[in-house]
Design goal:
Strand content: 5-15%
Distance between the termini: 25 Å
Order of helices and strands: EHEHEEHHHHHEHEHE
Shape: globular
Number of strands: 7
Helix content: 25-40%
Number of domains: 2
Largest sheet: 7 strands, mixed
Oligomer: single chain
Mean pLDDT: 96
Low-confidence stretches: none
Bound molecules: adenosine monophosphate, manganese (II) ion
Number of helices: 9
CATH architecture of the largest domain: Alpha-Beta Barrel
CATH class of the largest domain: Alpha Beta
Radius of gyration: 18 Å
Strand order of the largest sheet: 1-2-3-4-5-6-7
C-alpha cells in the first residue's frame, strides 16, 4: 500500500443484514482490497451485522466503526440518519430498532397485499420472501420483482410498482426525526445526516432540515459521497460551515454490480471542513 492509501475511509455501507448484497465479511474483504483503512457498517435499522464486520476488520487490521442508518421522518418525508459508534447493548436504542423493524415488516406485508390486489402480482409470496432478512426493505421487493420478470431493473420496479401513486405504494411512517436523534444521542452515538443532497427539498427546506438536525444534537453532514456532483458538494460544504458541522464521507455501497459508488472515500475535504473522524474515539 502507498502512503495515501491510509487516507481511505468509508462511513456508510450496507451488508445483507439490510439491503446490501454482501455478507459483512465479504464487504470488509472488498473494502480492504480497495485500501479502505477505516470502515463503518451502517445497515438500515439493524445492528445484526456488526459483530461479524468487527471480527473481519480486526482480522484484516482495519479500524472498525459500529454504525447504523436510521429511518426517520421529518415533515412527512423519509430522512436517514447515520449513527456512528452506536452501542448495540443500549436498551432504548435496541427498543427503537425493534419498533422500526416491526414497522418494516408490517409495511412490507401491506405492500404485498396491495401488489396482490391492485397489481395482480404474487405480492404476498414476494413479501414473505423479502421478510426473511434482518431488516427487510423495499429494495428486497424490487429485486424480487426483477427476478420474476415484472421489471427490467430495480429502478423500474420502484417506478412501476412501489413509488407514490403506484399499485404497491404504502407510506413509510417512520419515527420522527427528533425521536431518532434522541435515541442516538442518549445511547452515545454520533448522529450524521445521511446524503443531504438527495432529499427532495428546496434550498430553504434543506436549511430548515439541517437546522432541526442541529437543534436535535446532530454533529455531521455527509459531505463527500460517491456520485455527488461538484455543485452538490459545494452546497453541502456551505451548510457544514454555516451550521459548524463536521463532514462525514461514505459510499452508501450496497452491491458490487452497481458501479457508481465503489467503497472508500478520500479523507481530504474542501477548505474549512473538519472530518468526523476527529470525533471518533479509539475504541468502539
Ligand atoms: P425502504 O427503506 O424500505 O423504503 O427502502 C429504501 C431502500 O431502497 C433505500 O435504502 C435504497 O437502497 C433503495 N431505494 C429507494 N428508492 C429507490 C429507487 N427509486 N431506486 C432504487 N433503489 C431505491
Ligand atoms: Mn438502502
Ligand atoms: Mn439512505
Ligand atoms: Mn444507505
Amino acid at each position: 500500500m502507498d502512503a495515501s492509501a491510509e487516507l481511505l475511509v468509508d462511513f456508510h455501507t450496507h451488508s445483507h443484514y439490510s439491503d446490501g448484497v454482501l455478507s459483512p465479511a465479504a464487504l470488509v474483504e472488498r473494502a480492504h482490497a480497495r485500501n479502505v483503512g477505516t470502515l463503518a457498517l451502517t445497515d438500515h435499522d439493524t445492528v445484526a451485522g456488526l459483530d461479524e464486520a468487527r471480527a473481519a476488520c480486526d482480522a484484516a487490521g482495519m479500524r472498525f466503526v459500529a454504525g447504523v442508518e436510521l429511518s426517520a421522518q421529518w415533515r412527512g418525508q423519509p430522512i436517514h440518519v447515520v449513527g456512528l459508534q452506536v452501542d448495540p447493548a443500549h436498551a432504548a436504542f435496541g427498543a427503537h430498532l425493534a419498533g422500526v423493524l416491526a414497522r418494516r415488516r408490517t409495511r412490507l406485508a401491506e405492500i404485498g397485499e396491495r401488489l396482490e390486489k391492485r397489481g395482480r402480482l404474487p405480492g404476498r409470496e414476494l413479501a414473505a420472501l423479502a421478510a426473511t432478512t434482518a431488516a427487510p426493505t423495499r429494495l428486497h421487493l424490487a429485486r424480487l420483482l426483477v427476478e420474476r420478470g415484472h421489471a427490467g431493473d430495480t429502478q423500474e420496479a420502484f417506478d412501476r410498482w412501489l413509488n407514490k401513486d403506484k399499485a404497491g405504494h404504502v407510506p413509510a411512517e417512520w419515527p420522527a426525526l427528533s425521536d431518532a436523534m434522541a435515541v442516538l444521542r442518549d445511547s452515545g452515538a454520533l448522529p450524521v445526516l445521511a446524503h443531504p443532497h438527495r432529499y427532495r427539498l428546496s434550498a430553504g427546506g434543506l436549511r430548515e432540515l439541517v437546522a432541526a438536525f442541529v437543534q436535535d444534537g446532530g454533529v455531521a453532514l455527509e459531505a463527500s459521497m460517491a456520485g455527488m456532483s461538484p455543485n452538490d458538494a459545494d452546497r453541502i460544504a456551505s451548510l457544514c460551515r454555516r451550521f459548524k458541522l463536521l463532514a462525514s464521507m461514505g459510499s452508501d455501497f450496497h452491491d458490487p454490480a452497481v458501479p457508481w459508488n465503489p467503497l472508500g472515500r478520500w479523507l481530504k475535504l474542501a477548505a474549512g471542513l473538519e472530518p468526523v473522524t476527529d470525533r471518533l474515539t479509539a475504541t468502539r
